[in-house]
Amino acid sequence: MAALRIRTERLDMIPVTVEILKSDLHDHAALARLLEATVPAAWPPDEMNDEVLTEFIRMMSAKTDPFFSCWYWVLDTPGKNGRVLVGSGGIASALNAPDTVVIGYAVLAGFQG
Asked: What is the pTM of this model?
């Protein structure tokens, strides 16, 4: 089952795809096009390093975790800054803990609080 896009008044949560993750790893211009948002020079947050992105790509490609789901968070403020990638978050199965999921997220420092 595909993850749903979630929209609020100011936030657009876009479900990740392998294409989005690969763009984040190798081509931020392509990532900006896919998200229809500006990718700040400070991107990615420390928690979203190459190792994490590579593991997310593996998990999505192998489809080994039925609970894995992740979204990129785009702040959508028309008339101000437009659409800006500010963070990401998701869930995955906990290792060696059946029926348990872990929740993780990362937000650029300039958008925290």
From this structure: 0.89
User: Who's near 74: CB < 8 A, 6+ residues apart?
Assistant: 11, 12, 13, 14, 35, 36, 37, 83, 84, 85, 86
Q: Which residue has the tokens 């479900």?
A: 15
Which residue stretches of the chain have pLDDT < 70? 1-3
Q: Is 83 exposed, middle or buried (0-12, 13-18, 19+ CB in 10 A)?
A: middle
The answer to whether the CB of 18 falls within 8 A of the CB of 89 is no
Burial class (CB within 10 angstroms; exposed 0-12, middle 13-18, buried 19+) of 51: exposed
* Separation between Cα atoms, residue 51 and residue 25, nearest integer Å: 10
